[in-house]
Design a protein that fits this description.
The protein has 480 residues and is an alpha/beta fold. The protein is built from 13 helices and 21 strands.
Length: 480
């Protein structure tokens, strides 16, 4: 029996390592019971070499998995929480109520942990005792190990493990377990999402769409603070950087509040672009800036680069073509009390570069002295198109080049599906600029957007021979 019990332990461990929901304590127990020559279903309790019996339960014959809802929920499209109820058999220890806390501290690694589940229940046979529910995955043979038995001995607790019929409800299952039980077997389960204030944003696959409203409701139920779930129904529009969405569950309120890097923003998620996965990248660029630097944000959105830069006492010029983004940019500037430190524009990115950016650079760069430490940064965060805008820098300014230290630094974002995305984005930037960037640029991998699709940032100082057009001698005489 010991040898077979050891095999059962290995069987259970291997299942548990692949996925918790594949582990079935009742299944392992039935094998043990059959091997022992007795066939009481799940009514056997092992304690060392002795056996005791308890009444059969409804689930004894079902061989259902401990951490999976009832199989009848498979294919459900309208959430019925009652259908997730099921009864499972778990090990318990009988303990005097005055030492329950001490026992929980000593055996916390053995106690069953499930969402919304009480670890200690009343003993129906003894009001002075409590039943501590143990994790059957940790006690595959209903028998405690020597170290646990020693703890119980010190606490004067009987080491006998009993069986308890535990009712699991919808509240006791995790969202991933619920969705795995509902969706067709073998299909990908979506339990991840982007959180934007009170909104959960999903990108569902086609096979998940029939279950989209149930998925939305499960996410609301299992994530405190989420009151609205939306699914993107088309790709991001390259012009205004917004997308069509469907409200799957909850309220249809899409104006929300977010906090990023200790700065608060408000926005209408249905009309402007916001991606919480870019928080680290926003912070990285802001770290490069010094007080007094100048930032030109060509595709500013609602201000995740512009506003923290202004708070860092930089001079900021922020632009976005989307009128909704522009209005929310102004709103967030006021919200963060930097509206007098940011000059905001709503125009095409090329027009912004050819207008306000060229005007400011033409005015400020000639005034720079060698000892001055002011830096000029141009952020171009429109990954789908920004590299195509780099050609605007060709001969943007006229005159003698400023010092090399004063040349503006560009931070340009792009997507790449190339096998070598770093090489790809550099070559595309070079093609737009009409010059080589070898040894003059750095490339940073921002994030993986999708399988075989990366988002990168290429940073470089605009070469003087690209940025400046030297006036011809004839042109100077004509002006004179």
């Amino acid at each position: 029996l010991w040898r077979f019990g050891y095999s059962a332990r290995l069987l259970k461990t291997n299942h548990f390592r692949t996925a918790a929901s594949n582990t079935s304590f009742p299944a392992v127990w039935m094998v043990l019971a059959q091997y022992s020559g007795r066939i009481p279903g799940l009514s056997v309790v092992v304690k060392k070499n002795s056996f005791s019996t308890m009444p059969e339960t409804v689930e004894d014959k079902a061989n259902l998995e401990l951490y999976s809802p009832h199989p009848e929920v498979r294919g459900m499209t309208l959430l019925n929480r009652e259908a997730f109820k099921r009864t499972v058999v778990v090990p318990v220890l009988k303990v005097k109520k005055e030492i329950v806390n001490s026992l929980l501290k000593s055996l916390k690694h053995m106690v069953l942990q499930r969402p919304g589940l009480k670890r200690v229940v009343e003993d129906p046979e003894d009001e002075d005792s409590r039943l501590v529910i143990l994790d059957p995955h940790k006690i595959p043979e209903f028998s405690l190990g020597e170290s646990e038995r020693e703890v119980l001995k010190q606490l004067n607790v009987c080491p006998e493990v009993s069986k308890y019929n535990l009712e699991l409800t919808y509240e006791n299952f995790k969202s991933e377990e619920i969705l795995r039980a509902v969706l067709p077997e073998g299909q990908e389960v979506t339990s991840g999402f982007s959180r934007v204030g009170h909104i959960a944003h999903l990108n569902l696959r086609d096979h998940q769409l029939p279950y989209r409203h149930l998925i939305g409701q499960v996410i609301i139920d299992k994530n405190p603070g989420v009151t609205c779930v939306v699914n993107k129904t088309n790709i991001i529009d390259s012009t205004y950087r917004n997308f069509q969405m469907e409200v799957l569950a909850g309220e249809s309120k899409l104006v929300t509040k977010v906090k990023e890097n200790n700065i608060a923003y408000e926005l209408d998620f249905s009309k402007v672009y916001w991606n919480p996965r870019l928080s680290t990248e926003h912070g990285r660029i802001i770290e490069l800036l010094k007080p007094g630097d100048v930032l030109f944000d060509v595709f500013a959105g609602i201000g995740p680069f512009a506003i923290p830069a202004a708070k860092k006492k930089c001079h900021v010029f922020a632009n976005d073509l989307n009128p909704e983004s522009y209005n929310w940019l102004l709103h967030n500037c006021r919200l963060n009390k930097v509206d007098n430190k940011i000059k905001a524009f709503s125009m095409d990115g090329r027009d912004f570069l050819l207008g306000p950016v060229r005007e400011e650079l033409s005015k400020e760069l000639p005034l720079l002295k060698e000892e001055q430490k002011t830096s000029f940064h141009i952020v171009m965060n429109l990954p789908a198109l920004a590299i195509e805008f780099l050609g605007v820098f060709r001969h943007l300014l006229v005159g003698e080049p400023c010092s090399t230290a004063g040349l503006p630094t560009v931070h340009c974002y792009g997507f790449s599906k190339h096998d070598n995305p770093t090489k790809d984005i550099q070559e595309r930037a070079e093609a737009s600029l009409g010059t080589s960037l070898d040894g003059r640029c750095s490339t940073y991998l921002v994030r993986n957007v999708a399988p075989n699709k990366e988002m990168l940032c290429i940073s470089f100082q605009i070469p003087a021979d690209v940025l400046y057009k030297r006036p011809c001698p004839g042109e100077g005489k004509e002006q004179a």
